[in-house]
Each structure stands twice: as C-alpha cells, then as structure tokens.
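INFO batch 0412 | record 1 of 1 | parsing
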Amino acid sequence: MSNTLGTSARPLRVAIIGAGPSGFYAAQALLKQKDYEVSIDLIDHLPTPYGLVRYGVAPDHQKIKSVTRLYDRIASDPRLRFLGNVTVGKHISHEELTQHYDQIVYAVGAQTDKRLNIPGEDLPGSHPATEFVAWYNGHPDFSDRQFELGIESVAVIGVGNVAMDVARIMALSPDELERSDMADHALVALRDSRIKDIYIIARRGPAQVKFANPELRELAELEVTDVIIDPAELELDPYSEAAIIDNREAQANLEVMRHYASIGDTHRPKNIHFLFLRSPVEIISGENGRVAEVKLERNELIPTESGYLASHGIGEYETLQVGMILRSIGYRGHPIPGVPFHERWGIISNTEGRVCEYETGEIVPGVYVVGWAKRGPTGIIGTNKPDSVATVQRMLADIPSLQPVPDANADPDTVTTLLRDRAVRYVTWEEWKLLDAAEVAAGKQRGRPRVKFVTVADMLAAIDAAKAT
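INFO prediction complete | emitting tokens
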C-alpha cells in the first residue's frame, strides 16, 4: 500500500452512494475525523439531495425538514462533491466505482414495499404506500402515478409512521394542504378528493402499534377530521397488559387513543378509523374491476418462545367497503448489480457495516453500507447518525490494510470525464442550490414553503435557466 494514502498529496477517495440522511451523516463523520485527508463524492440517482427528507417526510412536517440546514453545512465543505442525476448500475457500475474509489459506502435506503401476498393485491386501486408518499412529495420516478381519489373510503394497512402519514395527508383540509410543500399535481388531486373515511388496519393490538406518539397526537389538530375508535378496540388481553408495564410510549399511545375514543364522532366531514387485531385476507373487485372491498380476518395474540406476541387468525371474517388500499407493512431494499444482497432480509449483505458475501460471509474489501440498506427499515432520521458513525469507524480501521486504487484513477476528474463521455448530465451542488432557490421563490409567491419541480427534465431546464441569468 502506498504510504501516502490519506495525505494531502493523495487523499482517501470515497464514494457515498445516496444523498439522504445516512449518506450525509457518513460524510460528516469522515470529514470530522483528523487522521486522514479525504476526498468524497456524494452520488445520487436524482438531481436533488436529501433523500427521504425531501421525498419521504410528510409535506406538512416542515420542522422535520429543517434538518437539511445541517446537510447544507456538510455539503459546503470543499472536500465533498455532489454528483446528482447519476445512477449506479446505469451510468456507472459498481465495478467501475471500485476502480476509482478507495472506499465505497452504499446509503441507498429501502426503496420497495413488502407485499401482503393475498388474492387481489394487484387490482387497480391497490398500491404500496411508499408510491403514494413519493407521488404527493413530487418524486420524479412517481410523479406520473395515478390514484383514484374520487372514492369515499380508503384502507391503510399497517400502523407505522408511514401509515399514519398517508392517513393524515388524506384527512387534511384544502387550507392545510396549501400550507405544505406538496407537489402541485397531488395538491390539486387531494383538494378535489371525495374521501370521507380512512381506515387504519392493524394485525395486532393497540399496545403493539409502531407509530410514534407525536404522530398520534397531531391527529387532534386536524381541521376537518374526527378520529373514531370503538372503546372495545382498546381492550387489552392479559399478554399485552403485561408487555407494556414498563413501556411508557405504548402506555402514552393508549392514553391518547382512549381520549379519542371518549370524544367519538363530532360530525366533521372526514373520519380516521382505527381497527385492531385484523388481517386482510383478500381484496375484492367491483363491477369496474377496481378495488371495492377488503376481507378481514379477526386475530388473537399468542406469545412465541421469545415472548413476541404474534397474531393468529381465529376464523371470523368481516368485509369493509373501500375504493383504495394502501399497504404499509414494511420495506426492503433493491439489489444493486455487483453488490451482495441478503434476499430474505432485503438489505445489502453486511457484517456491522462491512459488505460481505451473503453465502460465505467473506468481507468485500473497501465496500460498506449505512442506514436502512444496512440494518433494515428501523428508526427515525436521527437514528442514522450513530449508525453511519459506526460504519465510518470500521472504514477508518480498515485503511492500513486497504489496497488503494491507482493514483491516476483516484483523480476526481476521471469520474466526471467518464460521465461526460457517456453524456450523463450530472448536477453539482452549486446547480442544486440554483434549483432550490427557484423552488423557494416560486413558493414565496404563493405563500408556500416551496413549489417543487417534479420531473428531471424540468429540474435540468430550471438549472439551465438560472445559470443563463
């Protein structure tokens, strides 16, 4: 190994694939360490950074999105370069990355939904919740999706934060929608929506919900929507009673839900209903071939050997009339050509952040993973910081035994030259800031946080227009 690796003469070259929270936190940890000089390329599939903060966080949660100020400070470091609108596996391969970077970090998240695997799941009107989220947040890959909102009732399957987000978004009034940075196409569609009843369906009980307490509490602030919970839905079995004795969040959630149950229906235009201990077993079409009903089986909870309370059907069924299904039962990653993937867990195969071969466990030198692609879809935005720091610590520990790429290949210009030769229109950080300013200026004219560009072509045209002026 060259003894100059990690010096000003030959900085450690690192590619971070994915400009979401975990990618930025990995970059921050590398920039803050003092032992090695680094040169980082932050590469993203989209022209825009921030990942799920831009395309996953609900558009009415502007306070959460303020974390991008930190990411902006990280990106302002001259040792970091943003290359947006570059897709690994299409514009540049994993193998080519290994030829130009001493270390590669995958921060690509968990992009696809788990399936229910029940009859009728693929009927028109049955969708993954993440596609709905990406659609209303203006993700370019999903902005052309069509959702039938001229129906009166919707079932949301799942009780995590994403399920709560999509339910709340459908329950907002036109005025509430206008105060968000929701994509214009979704703003128009949801403003004209006829949805009145939103059913949140959980296979387990109210003591086992996965959403955070603030997500539940903020339903009380909705302007035109009641939260409807039958008090009988909140009765706990002895196992659940015992399980939450020391669980303050579960107790707090139950307290809020019991408060909603005590208020009941105040005859607002919209309702969010909570149904527990039910699993969808079939989605049924109407005469038009679209979703018309969902068949639910009632469950009971039975403890496993580990103490986990698993749901088991008891053979009692009911049918709920709904015009749309949004499933939100978990997420998994998508394989990247050349990168080992754990198919069953839906993550990049790794040992504590070091990518490894799935079959043998053999470590792949110089390749790492952070965030949901590393551990699965758990935690909140802030959870990614210690996760990324832990992986970076292993990266630094591996440097003495690292086989560096040839110095000529480590020149940053070699990557941009390769992209230009392939006619890849990559987006720099300075260009992103021009796009950001244009969105914020358009939003200011309309009294909104921003008005998003929702296609790559429009983003690039806006950048070109800003540069021309």
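INFO post-check: The longest strand covers residues 291-303.
INFO record closed
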